[in-house]
């Protein structure tokens, strides 16, 4: 018996040493979930690291986080290094919105255009990991983003039966959601399907707002109070399939997208006062968009051929992306007193269509040990069409305004990327050339056609040194370009009594440059990352706002010069078994400047996320978190957002064998009933402030149930390279 125990202890020590070595290794970086091995009364515990760093990306192991059983992907993103989410659930990567979202390594147009709603409907237990591609290579960076958020779904090679998961939630605001993931193998083919649904209610979307604007030239002040809601629903779905032709040839395809329909409605009350605070005019406005609907679908086809040379491959890809957005907004005015317009309302009809075809070829060739070359070419054809009409009710002099605009873009690109990985050193350098031709056409002949030819060079480079198994340093330089989409380009004029908006067909692509240094430490119980970065652009697209006759006019121009110095910080600490602390921070010193108007705005915001989880008896997991912003965050060169904060607690427990069933309860910001979001406009022709209030929906309680079946270890195989287009800003949907 003593000999048996001695052998057991030796085995336990060996397992512990292997676990510690694995923990310290840079090859495997996972955390949060523990496994136990019992050896004759001795229990050995090893931890899986959540974070992994490569030369061009940071990875977060979602499956190693126990919260993934009940949370959605948007919830999980708050824990991912270099990702922050603001109070309106807009996702920021590396402190800004200049990024794209991929799924399984290629661009997903649906996610990029309506991320927050889709990711709220996507259960986290269907996602394997979330990657922040911090330094996209010449192939990815080509079309110009500063970062890429890559959602990697569950994957694998083989499965014996159907696997998947289902989840759903219901909140005290009467909102509800459902998500499902299903995968199976049919001979040489693997097929997966994922689906999500979110219902938004009037209660969950109700808001109130107050705005006060002072026109500098006249001294008059405009005061507006407003209420609004936008109940509706969103569906998203994806189907992915792969077929192993043989050991060297793989064919994969996917199709998916989303559809949503909302009923936007609200009421405004507007009063204009002179400098002596005497009313000049007043009116009330009721508006609604009863049939606002948006479709976005995309399909991809990839063929991959591998040669007998290890690591050498050739890939051909095609992608089709379609977006259709239709809306009819009707405004009716009442309580009209001395108003400066001659109509009682209007009906604005908007039809916007976007179609994109992309063809791409990629070639990867290992040169010799530790050296690899990647090269490729791409062609993109984009077609944008916009048709607007604005009909005025009971207008004596204001005519109806029809407007049509067509925009075509053709892009041809070629790139080369060189990668080096020997010993403790790894490096990557690449260059991309892009030629683009843009043409605008006005079918009604109310304006002259225009065209523009652009040539852009996009270099990038990064080098990483692994000091030892725990410490690493990485220096990176990236450039990117962004092209204006139809929303920014469309010169159609949209009129309302107190504002006029229109696009600018003369916009050109903008360039951004960034330099960053990344330090990372990965230990058995502590993971730490610090990333100082400097970023600048001299011709970014920015808002142009001015006042004419006490009416706000808004458009866009390549007028923005900005400088951004920031520090990203991330820490995960496990002082005891079952206890985890996480901090995710982003501090920025931001300078926005419009030289044409001689305006400059400087802000110092700090976005933060703090999280703690604790294992409790009876298989309970308790968590608490807080997130928000300290300081002012710039909106543009004219205005900024003020500080805000949310917090919450949750409790979850798993049941059945292998913890297949998990039930979670969450309370978000349970004490204040309303949450305020303040903005200040501090320079320009119009000065003032605004306060947007989430009425009753800041505080809510939610119950979530998830169930997984099968082994859930497999998913559709993907070609190792495919298409990603990430250059456009201001398309049909600018929200993220």
**Second CATH tier, the architecture:** Beta Barrel
N-C termini distance: 64 Å
Mean pLDDT: 82
Query: How much of the polypeptide forms β-strand, as a percent range?
Result: over 45%
Instruction: Write the CATH fold name.
Output: Maltoporin, Chain A
How is this structure best described in words?
This protein has one domain: TonB-dependent receptor, beta-barrel domain (Maltoporin, Chain A). 7% of the residues lie in helices and 63% in strands. The chain contains 7 helices and 42 strands. The strands form 4 sheets. The protein has a 22-stranded antiparallel beta barrel. A 6-stranded mixed β-sheet has the order 3-4-9-10-7-8. The chain is globular and about 75 Å long.
List the helices and strands and how they pair.
Elements: H1 2-24, E1 34-39, E2 42-47, E3 51-53, E4 58-61, H2 73-77, E5 83-85, E6 91-93, E7 99-103, E8 106-107, H3 109-113, H4 115-121, E9 127-133, H5 138-141, E10 147-153, E11 163-171, E12 176-186, E13 189-200, H6 202-205, E14 207-215, E15 221-229, E16 232-246, E17 249-273, E18 279-306, E19 313-337, E20 345-368, E21 371-393, E22 401-422, E23 425-441, E24 450-466, E25 471-484, H7 486-489, E26 494-496, E27 499-501, E28 510-522, E29 526-548, E30 551-573, E31 579-594, E32 599-603, E33 606-616, E34 620-630, E35 633-634, E36 639-641, E37 644-655, E38 661-668, E39 675-681, E40 686-694, E41 700-709, E42 728-729
Parallel strand pairs: 7-10, 25-42, 27-30
Antiparallel strand pairs: 1-2, 3-4, 4-9, 5-6, 7-8, 9-10, 11-12, 11-41, 12-13, 13-16, 14-15, 14-40, 15-17, 16-17, 17-18, 18-19, 19-20, 20-21, 21-22, 22-23, 23-24, 24-25, 25-28, 26-27, 28-29, 29-30, 30-31, 31-32, 31-33, 33-34, 34-37, 35-36, 36-39, 37-38, 38-41, 39-40
């Amino acid at each position: 018996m003593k000999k048996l125990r001695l052998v057991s202890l030796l085995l336990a020590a060996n397992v512990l040493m292997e676990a510690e070595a694995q923990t310290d290794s840079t090859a495997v970086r996972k955390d949060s979930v523990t496994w136990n091995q019992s050896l004759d009364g001795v229990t050995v515990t090893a931890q899986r690291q959540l974070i992994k760093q490569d030369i061009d990306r940071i990875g977060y192991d979602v499956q190693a986080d126990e919260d993934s059983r009940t949370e959605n992907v948007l919830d999980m993103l708050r824990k991912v290094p270099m990702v922050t989410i603001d109070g309106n659930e807009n996702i920021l990567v590396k402190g800004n919105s200049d990024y794209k979202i991929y799924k399984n390594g290629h661009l997903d147009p649906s996610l990029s255009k309506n991320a927050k709603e889709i990711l709220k409907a996507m259960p986290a237990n269907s996602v394997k990991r979330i990657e922040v591609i911090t330094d996209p290579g010449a192939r990815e960076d080509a079309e110009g983003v500063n970062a890429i958020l890559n959602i990697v779904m569950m994957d694998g090679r083989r499965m014996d039966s159907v696997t998947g998961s289902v989840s759903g939630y219901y909140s005290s605001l009467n909102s509800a959601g459902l998500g499902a993931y299903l995968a199976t193998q049919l001979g040489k083919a693997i097929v997966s399907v994922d689906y999500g649904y979110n219902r938004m209610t009037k209660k969950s979307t109700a808001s109130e707002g107050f705005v006060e604007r002072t026109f500098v030239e006249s001294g008059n002040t405009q005061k507006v109070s407003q209420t609004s809601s936008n109940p509706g629903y969103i569906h998203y779905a994806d189907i992915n399939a792969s077929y192993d032709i043989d050991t060297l040839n793989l064919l994969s395809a996917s199709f998916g997208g989303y559809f949503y329909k909302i009923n936007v409605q609200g009421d405004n009350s507007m009063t204009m006062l002179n400098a002596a605070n005497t009313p000049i005019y007043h009116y009330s406005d009721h508006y609604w968009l009863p049939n606002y609907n948006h479709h976005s679908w995309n399909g991809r086809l990839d063929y991959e051929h591998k040669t007998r040379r290890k690591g050498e491959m050739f890939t051909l890809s095609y992608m089709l992306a379609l977006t259709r957005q239709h809306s009819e907004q009707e405004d009716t005015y009442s309580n009209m007193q001395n108003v400066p317009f001659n109509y009682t309302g209007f009906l604005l009809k908007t039809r916007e269509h976007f179609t994109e075809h992309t063809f791409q070829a990629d070639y990867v060739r290992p040169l010799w040990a530790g050296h690899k070359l990647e090269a490729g070419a791409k062609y993109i054809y984009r077609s944008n069409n916009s048709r607007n009409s604005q009909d005025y009710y009971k207008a004596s002099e204001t005519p109806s305004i029809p407007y049509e605009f067509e925009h075509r873009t053709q892009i041809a690109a070629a790139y080369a990327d060189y990668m080096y990985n020997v010993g403790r050193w790894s490096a990557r350098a690449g260059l991309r050339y892009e030629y683009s031709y843009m043409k605008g056409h006005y079918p009604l002949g109310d304006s002259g056609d225009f065209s523009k030819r652009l040539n852009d060079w996009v270099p990038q480079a990064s080098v990483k040194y692994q000091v030892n198994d725990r410490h690493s340093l990485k220096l990176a330089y990236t450039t990117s370009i962004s092209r204006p989409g139809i929303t920014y380009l469309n010169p159609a004029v949209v009129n309302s009594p107190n504002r006029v908006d229109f696009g600018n067909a003369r916009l050109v692509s903008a360039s951004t440059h960034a330099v960053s240094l990344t330090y990372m430490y990965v230990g058995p119980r502590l993971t730490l990352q610090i990333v100082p970065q400097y970023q600048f652009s001299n011709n970014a697209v920015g808002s142009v706002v001015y006042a004419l006759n006490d009416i706000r006019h808004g458009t866009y121009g390549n007028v923005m010069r900005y400088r951004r110095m920031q520090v990203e910080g991330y820490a995960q600490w496990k002082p005891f078994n079952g206890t985890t602390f996480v901090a995710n921070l982003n501090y920025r010193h931001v300078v926005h400047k419009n030289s044409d108007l001689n305006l400059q705005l400087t802000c110092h915001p700090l976005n933060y996320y703090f999280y703690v989880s604790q294992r409790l008896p009876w298989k309970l997991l308790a968590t608490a978190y807080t997130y928000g912003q300290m300081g002012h965050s710039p909106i543009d060169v004219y205005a900024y957002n003020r500080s805000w904060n949310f917090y919450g607690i949750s409790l979850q427990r798993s049941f059945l064998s292998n913890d297949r069933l998990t039930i979670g309860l969450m309370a978000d910001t349970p004490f204040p009933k309303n949450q305020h979001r303040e903005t200040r406009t501090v320079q320009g022709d119009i000065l003032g402030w605004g306060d947007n209030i989430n009425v009753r929906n800041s505080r809510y309680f939610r119950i979530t149930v998830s169930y997984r079946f099968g082994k859930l270890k497999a998913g559709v195989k993907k070609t190792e390279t495919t298409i990603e287009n990430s250059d456009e800003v201001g398309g049909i949907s600018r929200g993220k």
